Amino acid sequence: MGKKIQLIDRVRLGLAVSIAKSVTFLVRSLRLGAASVLPGSIARRIEPQILQLLSQQVKNGIILIAGTNGKTTTALLLCTILEHKGYKIAHNSTGANLENGLATALIDNANLLGSLNVDYAILEVDENIVPKVLKPLQPRIILCLNLFRDQLDRYGEVDTISKKWTKVISTLPDETVVIPNADDPTLSYLGQQLNQKVLFFGLNEPKHYLEAIPHAVDSIFCPKCGHSLDYEGVYLSHLGDFTCPSCGFTKSKPTLESGEWSQILVGLYNKYNTLAAATAAQELGVDEITIRETISTFQAAFGRAEDLVIDGKKVRILLSKNPVGTNETIRVVTESTDKTTLLILNDRTPDGTDVSWIWDVDTEKLVERGGTLVVSGDRVYDMALRLRYSQKSAQSNLNLIVEEDLRKAITTALEHTPANETLHILPTYSAMLEVREVLTGRQIL
Description:
Elements: H1 7-29, H2 38-46, H3 50-55, E1 62-66, H4 71-84, E2 89-91, H5 99-108, E3 120-125, H6 130-137, E4 141-144, H7 158-169, E5 177-180, H8 185-193, E6 197-198, E7 230-236, E8 239-243, H9 268-283, H10 288-297, E9 304-310, E10 313-318, H11 323-334, E11 340-344, H12 364-368, E12 371-376, H13 380-389, E13 398-402, H14 406-415, E14 422-427, H15 429-440
Parallel strand pairs: 1-3, 1-4, 2-3, 4-5, 5-6, 10-14, 11-12, 11-14, 12-13
Antiparallel strand pairs: 7-8, 9-10
Helix pairs in contact: 1-2, 2-5, 4-9, 4-10, 6-7, 7-8, 9-10
């Protein structure tokens, strides 16, 4: 934290940052995008150690946020809390969470000579590159949110990823603080194996238990001995209150009492994000009043439970990019009284090209309640077929509308939404960007 850089490294760093900033200016001036990845890619070719050279200048350290779901919301909430205390933050707010995106975020906050003057850097990191970036970043705090199956064509099983995390985190300095999700068996076990300071976050609210373990379950076996875990109840997917009847492994105790923390964002999954950010903020010395006040006025990140008003009607965008996340957004929809939903399924690189994951989603709950379901996207017919297979009876009161053209699909969904209800839109990642551009006229990336 705040280390001095040798002269030769300073010269090369300054050159890399200057060129990267020029690229950023050019891309944004020509409205070619947000320039959230390309500048970092170019800078890393000029100075391969740029992540290390910039991160070591951060005064109070790097906060790394990793996991399958919730990174963007948790990072933005923690960033907002710290900014309310007057700290200057570097943050990869566009969600570009691979190495080039991390480099770009730090470059954006540096001057032309490569000097970085920020108090903290909050970086959300793709779960698969955590082992690659921990050494150059040397984070002060690591938030481990959850591990679910995400893009089937890109990643292996969650236990493989967790083992890689454990191996590399265990090599970090003892003063590193690790904050895992106590309700995730693999992460709870990870935290129990470390010598570093470990704090946990999680729920202790049986009233939120699901009626049954959902289809999209990744880890119901003991990470210590392999025996089936006994669950008192699950909150979502494999996250819950568990013990192992064979070896005695059990859920770690969370630092904060979850029932004492309210949230403004919809969805139980956002309760986890809230608790994760609050636990990290308290560890950084932020007072509880500031944390609670920030949470009570917090606005969701784009596409994550984001609320808009379009033509006088309420619209809520709920990013739905994998089985667990989609099951939770469906829970938000089914717990409301709103009866119009737009589902958009794409299979582009940011989404993952394998869309077979939709068969692990509990779409039956969405279909059973009836109402209007509008379907669109690159794989519109795959999603329409999944919904048809979810119908128990041909006599259901479901109005399923299939529309290939996204703009027409949005218009149709809005037309079917009564003035006093909210249109819920459940898109994959690239679809979410398209939806926001259609609705607001602004591109994100």
